[in-house]
Structure formats: C-alpha cells, structure tokens
Amino acid sequence: MKAIIHQQIEGLDGLSYSDIDEPIVKSNQVKVQLKAAGMNRRDIAVTYRHGASDEPLVLGSDGAGVITEVGDSVDQWQVGDEVVINPGLGWKNISEAPPEGFEILGLPDDGTFAEYIVMDQDHVESKPAHLSWHEAGVLPLAALTAYRVLFTRGKVKKGDTVMLPGIGSGVLTYALKFAKAIGARVIVTSRSQSKLEKAKSLGAALAIDTNSDWNEVLKGEQVDLLVESIGRATFNKSLKIIRKGGTIVTFGSTTEDTVEIDIRHFFYGQFNLLGSTMGSAEEFRSMLAFVGQHNVKPEIDHMFNLEDYLEAFTYLKDTKNFGKIGFDIS
C-alpha cells in the first residue's frame, strides 16, 4: 500500500511517500480502508521526536474509512461498516488525567497517512451519518481535544463568555462551534484579519487583533473561560482579561512553553488554571454524539493528496490554515 512514512532524517526531510506492506489483522482487530485522514501540529512534532535510527513510521492520528476485514474474535463490527478512528490509545473512561501507558496513534504505532490501517475493535467508532468522508477524517484528535477542554475541564455552559486567542487552529475552530452550539458567547483573537472575518462568519461575537490591548478593547467584558494555546506570547494577557474566579484551560503552546506569572495577581483573582490533553474513549463517544445532535461539521481549509505530503506539511507548519487540513485518500 501507499503511505507517508518518516525515517532516517530528523524533521520534514525524513518524510517520503512510499510503498509498504499492508498491515495484518489479528484476532481482536479490524482493518480499515481509509478514505480521508486529518493533519495535526503533532504530526510535525513527530518528525523530530521519531529517532533517525528507529524503524520507519507511518504518521497520522486522524482518519475515517470502511472496514474491509475483521479478526476472529471481533463482535462489534463487520465488513462494510463506516468508522472513524479513535487516536487515543489506552484511555477508556473519563478521568482527571490520562492513565499510565496512554499513547496517541502515529507514534509509537503506525498511523493513518496510508491506504489501510489495523486497529483494535474498541478503537473505532461509527462515522457520524451527517459527515462526508473528508469531514469525518479530520474530526477525531482536534474535536476530542476541544470537547474535553470545554466540557470536562472548563465546565462551559449556556450564557458563558468563552475567549479563544489565536483562532484558526483545528482545536479552536471546533471550540468555537461547540461553544456556540450550547449557547455560549465567543470572543476570538488573531493577527490575521481574514481569520477574524472567518471567525465572525462562524458566530464569534467579537473578533480582535491578538496584538491589541485586550483590557482596553474588551472593557466591560466578563470572560468566564479562556482557552490558552499560544503560550508565553499571550499567557499573561489571558490571565489579566478573565473575570475574578474565571478559568484558563491550556492544551498546548505555539510559542515558548515557559511562562512567568504574578502569583499575587493570581491568588487574589481566585483564578483556575487547568491543563488538558486529548481525551478518553468515553469522551470520544460523547463528542461524536454531540456533533451528531448539534449537526456540527468541521471547518475544512484544504485537503491534499498523499503524494503532496511535503506541500501539506509546509502549509501546516506555516499556520496558513483556518480550521482543518488533511489528506484525501479515496
């Protein structure tokens, strides 16, 4: 089969579009012919984390397709079922943090940037009927991350004001749509005017320049929940804009990870600071049900062919996307 693999050289230079053996199904597994696969910034990071001396690795965490083969003991699925991949391995139930041994598909296990993948039967779920293959293929990792950030960790509810600095990523576009679906009010920031306009078209109540004085521009606003994913460049601005007793949930950083804060301001403000990453299989199923109930569809920026992998990775690395990008494998 054809696949995007990483080997021998650190970074994007180690990527290639190659012929490799199709995976073999074991007793409790299903084989999925992938129709589409989504990209995440993690895929770029993996090209640096995957050692040059390690075995060749198929990248990718997101995917959707049709089951073409089932193992002997499989009782949940049959050939022809349309499924989405749950990329979180070893985290079954909602908990405060992932259990020991939790992994994400695409390192160390082979991922979804290929024509076929083999998964344990409990790591696939039925594809939401209202989604196209492209939409289903780019859903899993980012939508699950956004769902846990908002609902499990952030406890967002109708009427809350949610702020999303740096709108444009897959996770934040899902967060915008999920928050709007339950009746929250959403404020976004970006340095890109076109991304601000797109966010407003999706229902953002306010869209402001990331480099502006947030306290001045948002005077009178009460931010209940802020989703922080930029890091040092915005973290203290975020801490100064949320209401007293408000919450910041962070799931990553696109600038430097190390942040210094005024601890006196923090404890006087009675703020809540929470970390989050991915989510459990239980939350994945809840997210799929939520997406179906509210007819939420991913915001797709661009779909590439597998052979155009370098263009796709460069596009993502340069943060050109608004919403999700991925691969059309069908």
TrEMBL record:
- Signal sequence range: none
Q: Name one Pfam family in it.
A: ADH_N
- Which domain of life does the UniProt lineage start with? Bacteria
InterPro entries given in the database record:
ADH-like_C, ADH-like_N, ER, GroES-like_sf, NAD(P)-bd_dom_sf, Zinc_ADH-like
Q: Which SUPFAM superfamilies match?
A: GroES-like (SSF50129), NAD(P)-binding Rossmann-fold domains (SSF51735)
Q: Which residues form the Enoyl reductase (ER) domain?
A: 11-327
What this protein is called in its record is: Zinc-binding dehydrogenase
